[in-house]
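About this split. The held-out portion is used to measure sequence recovery: a designer receives only the structure tokens and must propose an amino acid at every position. Recovery is the fraction of positions where the proposal matches the reference. Here is one held-out target exactly as it appears in the evaluation file.
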């Protein structure tokens, strides 16, 4: 690879790391080209990306940045998985892929500027997608006033039932 090409790749990696909402470094030792292509395709369907990277170029890209911690344990073949949108969809797609092809291992990850553990990535895959979570939150907010009004109305309703029962009792007597 020529020096200009290396500089271009380092710049691209810097841009990805700086703009990614969710970024995961994967050790992919033993994956075939077909398996990597399949993972790329599955990630693209969820607005995710995958790029096989050279360790030294990645280290150069994150050197002297807030994300330098990402490169500390890079040994062997690595790939970078990222998205600029909903991280849950990407995590779900990755989890589904790993069920079929367990040769991939999460080494480190970040969500925004926060470091994630392997367990955090797995937990992220178990969350509902962003649209569903928003709908659940709106449903929760919409249900609170209705519950409050029913709570306020309950004593009056019970008093009405009491009067009705007393009326029926007096009519029978």
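Reference sequence for scoring:
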């Amino acid at each position: 690879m020529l020096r200009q090409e290396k500089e271009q790749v380092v710049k691209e990696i810097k841009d990805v790391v700086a703009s990614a909402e969710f970024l995961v470094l994967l050790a992919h030792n033993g994956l075939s080209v077909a398996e990597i292509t399949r993972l790329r395709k599955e990630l693209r369907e969820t607005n995710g990306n995958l790029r096989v990277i050279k360790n030294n170029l990645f280290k150069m890209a994150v050197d002297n940045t807030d994300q330098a911690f990402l490169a500390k344990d890079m040994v062997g073949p690595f790939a970078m998985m990222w998205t600029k949108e909903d991280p849950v969809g990407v995590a779900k797609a990755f989890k589904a892929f790993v069920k079929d092809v367990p040769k991939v291992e999460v080494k480190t990850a970040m969500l925004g500027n926060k470091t994630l553990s392997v367990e955090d990535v797995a937990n992220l895959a178990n969350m509902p997608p962003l649209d569903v979570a928003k709908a659940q939150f709106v449903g929760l907010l919409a249900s609170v006033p209705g519950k409050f009004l029913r709570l306020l109305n309950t004593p009056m309703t019970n008093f009405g039932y009491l009067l009705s029962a007393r009326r029926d009792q007096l009519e029978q007597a």
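Annotator remark: The chain has a mean pLDDT of 87.
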